[in-house]
Design brief:
alpha+beta, 5-stranded mixed beta sheet, 30% helix
């Protein structure tokens, strides 16, 4: 069970231009040395609309578009541009002080959906857009978009290739399009009950492992075991279950979910393995397994119990 963004990004290409962005949106000078003005009296969509038909590689206009986008509220660290061959791509790198507030997909995905919808409508030849989020310990989550997959995301059915292409045909159409972007719903609104339960379970896990650690990508092993008298008396299981006032006997007859994860401490590069036990949506016990060998022992134990 994984709650980070894990889609594989296609290679950005050989030529990468890194631009360090500073401050808020500013006046841009185009190739003819004319100032493209942005005034406080302009509406938000009008400020953006003046950058229609921007191309990947038009550095100053790209910077202005990204600085105008209000959805993430995150500081931009840099841009990376793929300009030497198709697919033409833009990577926007954001920097935050701590990853603690961005543990789950819905923490940032809605804002990135909105960013991508606006950027594709204005940047005519952009084939791919990638958003990456960093803290002082490195990159920890990211999301990839192209013009075909945009409308396939939760709540994004409106944003087809044709709709996005026609969005900046005129100022009125673009204003209506920006209103559609603003109404994009949070991906979590579309979660099924199983997904919602998984998120709540993960939040309980993070309450145990702390802010310095995270669930390793694709590391989960899941078991469901119905507790009977024999299982409840197993010394290894009792060691896991019997914490505080919890007794294995009180769960006799219940199906308990066991999750084993590799837990990484991203500040120290150390890792360990934890086993967590859930009674429906409530964590009832957990144990630090300490070593990968202990993890394998736990898996073998649970396999035997399951049989």
């Amino acid at each position: 069970m994984q709650y980070f963004i894990t889609n594989q990004k296609k290679a950005i290409g050989a030529l990468v231009l890194v631009l360090i962005l500073t401050g808020a949106a500013y006046a841009i000078v185009d190739g003819n040395n004319r100032t493209v003005g942005i005034t406080d009296t302009d509406s938000y969509d009008a400020k953006l609309y003046q950058y229609k038909n921007t191309y990947v590689g038009d550095n100053s206009k790209l910077s202005a578009i990204i600085n105008l986008l209000p959805y993430t509220g995150l500081p931009v660290q840099s841009l990376e541009l793929q300009t030497d061959h198709a697919p033409y791509g833009i990577t926007v790198n954001y920097q935050v002080d701590s990853r603690t507030n961005y543990r789950f997909r819905d923490d940032i995905s809605t804002a990135w959906n909105q960013n991508a919808a606006v950027m594709f409508s204005l940047i005519t030849n952009a084939d791919e857009i990638v958003f990456r989020l960093h803290d002082e310990y490195g990159e920890f989550t990211w999301s990839y978009y192209n013009r075909e997959n945009l409308s396939k995301r939760w709540g994004m059915e409106y944003f087809t290739r044709n709709t996005v292409k026609e969005a900046a045909n005129d100022a009125g159409a673009f204003k209506a399009y920006v209103n559609q972007v603003a109404s994009i719903r949070n991906a979590a609104d579309f979660y099924c009950e199983e997904q919602k339960r998984g998120i709540e379970n993960a939040k309980q896990i993070y309450a145990v492992i702390g802010d310095d650690s995270e669930i390793a990508t694709n590391s989960g092993v899941q078991f469901f075991i119905t507790i009977n008298n024999s299982i409840a008396a197993n010394p290894q299981l009792k060691e896991l279950i019997e914490q505080g006032d919890l007794k294995a006997e009180q769960y006799t007859g219940k199906k308990i979910e066991f999750l084993i994860y590799q837990i990484n401490n991203f500040k120290t590069d150390n890792y360990t393995f934890y086993c967590f036990a859930f009674d429906d949506d409530k964590m009832i016990a957990y144990q630090d397994l300490k070593t990968s060998e202990a993890e394998q022992d736990a898996i073998r134990l649970l396999n035997r119990l399951e049989e």
